[in-house]
Amino acid sequence: MRTVDPEKHALKRANIVAAAAAEFAANGVDGTSTAAICRRACIGSGTLFHYFPTKRDIFHAVFSDDFERSAAIYEEAVTAVRAEAGLELLVDHLVVSLADPLAPGLMAAAVLQAYRDEEFGRLLAGDEARLRAALTSLLERMAADGRRLAFGPDRTARWIQRLFDASFLATGDRDYDPSAQATELRKTVDWLTGRQGS
Amino acid sequence: MRTVDPEKHALKRANIVAAAAAEFAANGVDGTSTAAICRRACIGSGTLFHYFPTKRDIFHAVFSDDFERSAAIYEEAVTAVRAEAGLELLVDHLVVSLADPLAPGLMAAAVLQAYRDEEFGRLLAGDEARLRAALTSLLERMAADGRRLAFGPDRTARWIQRLFDASFLATGDRDYDPSAQATELRKTVDWLTGRQGS
DNA sequence: TTATTAATGGAGCGCATGCTCTATTTATGA
DNA sequence: TCATAAATAGAGCATGCGCTCCATTAATAA
Q1: CB of B43 within 7 Å of some strand D atom
Q2: Which of A17, A39, A45, B198 has CA atoms 20 to 30 A from the CA of B80?
Q3: pLDDT score of A197
Q4: Which of residues 103-132 of A touch B (CB under 8 A)?
Q5: Nucleotides of C under 7 A from a protein CB
Q6: Interface check A163 vs B, CB under 8 A
Q7: B158, A129 in Cβ contact below 8 A?
């Protein structure tokens, strides 16, 4: 008998997911061939389909792995003692993820895939809903504490999300300036959340 | 002898471009087959390739047709007598284009294509640069007139662009509310441009 | 060691793709 | 009317695709 080593399996799987993410970000779902993923991951097609049943499932894995990590952070943020601290945690998380050079390509690929792949659409909508719920919950507490939000808590939450979506796209620009972007992003969020001195 | 009727030719061409735009928005460049474009445009493949040499050229045409129209509006805006009126013209143009249901899909397809197709990247960057130049020029005049912009004119222009980019993506959302979106968008732009009473 | 099975590479299958080519129809100037 | 070329449809070609299948190797329980 031989049993499967879960640690080795997870490691190899993660390696494939990383290679696939790079390809998907550069070429989209339909523009990426399974052969290209194999080449980048230095494996044969037999190995690839030993770990994943279809190309679509690899794409799903790229995102659901990330969403799992994010969900934990959302959870941590809403349970913060001070609502401001929770919001800062979320903003920090988003600013950090802006540093990922694959972000704009993956985002574009995701938008297109969401139209055609209902299951992926739900996956994506789930992460968005969780983030929005966390933001809304924190903003409601802040509003109750006297903060004057630019819009209602839910709408303000949407705008914060959209601001980051836009920033993800901007990271693809030729002359993208990460530090200026982060500073301005925080200032805009401060305005949206009615912070003093903005 | 028989000559080409430029009007009929342009009409037929526009019909193909419209059909292609719908397909590209739903499935991206690589996910769209030339056969699908033919089906939607109700033509044979012979006709398609009589009007365009390659699929890539059709995609380029979808955007360059639109960019040409936009460029005329940018031109009109910068030559406005009052800078505020020029800015309003630009914002109106952008708000109107938000109503296009193909916008988010086309935008996602464009982001992906820009990575792999240098010529298309230049096309896209050209439109962005023209819009930013128009916005910056107007914002500089407004700043000279005493408006207190949130950031420098060029950076503020970038943020306005990004706000709209993000809104384009949001139009794909299930519960997208166009009027609320437009109102909030204008309020945010007002804040960015230091307008009183925001 | 040995039996068992996970892990792996790669040949190759069936199918869809972008595009070409040819035949036919249609519209126009003379 | 007639000659000419634009416009069109669609069969078909070469290529690349996702994925299967099978042979081989590597690792582990007994």
Answers
A1: yes
A2: B198
A3: 58
A4: 104-105, 107-109, 111-112, 114-116, 125
A5: 3-12, 16-23, 26-30
A6: yes
A7: no
Calculate mean pLDDT across residues A18-44: 98
Mean pLDDT of the region A122-149: 97
Sign, Cα dihedral of B36, B37, B42, B47: negative
What percent of chain B stands above pLDDT 70?
99
Return the percentage of chain A with pLDDT > 70, whole number. Answer: 98
On whether the CB atoms of residues B8 and B34 are closer than 8 A, the answer is: no
pLDDT higher than 50, residue A171: yes
Identify all chain A residues contacting B174, using CB atoms and an 8 Å cutoff. Answer: 125
Per the rule left: phi > 0, alpha: psi between -120 and 50, beta: everything else, A179 is alpha
- Could you identify the residue written with the tokens 């509310």? B177
Residue A198 has pLDDT above 50, yes or no: no
**Residue the block writes with tokens 């939607």:** B40
Contacts of A178 in chain B (CB under 8 A): none
Amino acid occupying residue A22: A
Residue type, A137: S
The Cα B166–Cα B44 span in angstroms is 37
Look-up of token digits 């779902």: A29
For the stretch A53-66, pLDDT in tens is: 999 999 999 999 99
What kind and span of H or E run contains A120?
helix A118-144
